[in-house]
Amino acid sequence: MTIEQAQQEVDTWIKEVGVRYFSELTNMAILTEEVGEVARIIARRYGDQSFKKSDEEVDLGAEMADVLFVLLTLANQTGVNLTEAFAKGMEKRTKRDKDRHQNNPKLR
């Protein structure tokens, strides 16, 4: 599935199942909440925090997919073509960081 197809699938789902888009502000709050859930899992699984019983079996991939869904939702409702935006971002990073990371002794 392409990013464009994912944006279209989210749009269709929202219109057919979700009734309508929430406001951009509501979706930004939801995105923040979902990113927090990913952070909680990462902090416990890969960091120093201890697991709570309720966190032990949480699916990290499912939580990341929730973040992606809300991000695609925000892109749709604000008119952002994420395929184009991602391509521009990769080009910017490649130009900016081409030598920077290659010459970083911490990464060797």
Question: Would you write up a description of this structure?
Answer:
There is one protein chain. The protein is built from four helices and no strands. Helices cover 70% and strands 0% of the residues. The protein has 108 residues and is mainly alpha-helical.
Q: What would you say about this model in short?
A:
The chain is built from 4 helices and no strands. With 108 residues, the protein is mostly helical. The protein has one domain: Orthogonal Bundle (Helix Hairpins).
List keywords for this structure.
Helix Hairpins; mainly alpha
Q: Looking at the structure, what is the overall shape?
A: flat
Ends apart, CA distance between termini: 34 Å
CATH architecture: Orthogonal Bundle
**Beta-strand level of the residues, as a percent range?**
under 5%
As for the CATH topology, it is Helix Hairpins
Radius of gyration, CA atoms, in whole angstroms: 18 Å
Give the total of domains: 1
CATH superfamily name? MazG-like
Oligomer: single chain
The CATH class designation is Mainly Alpha
> Segments where pLDDT lies below 50 for 5+ residues?
none
Number of strands: 0
What's the helical proportion of residues?
over 70%
User: What structural class is derived from the secondary structure elements?
Assistant: mainly alpha
What is the topological layout?
Elements: H1 3-16, H2 24-45, H3 60-78, H4 82-102
Helix pairs in contact: 1-3, 2-3
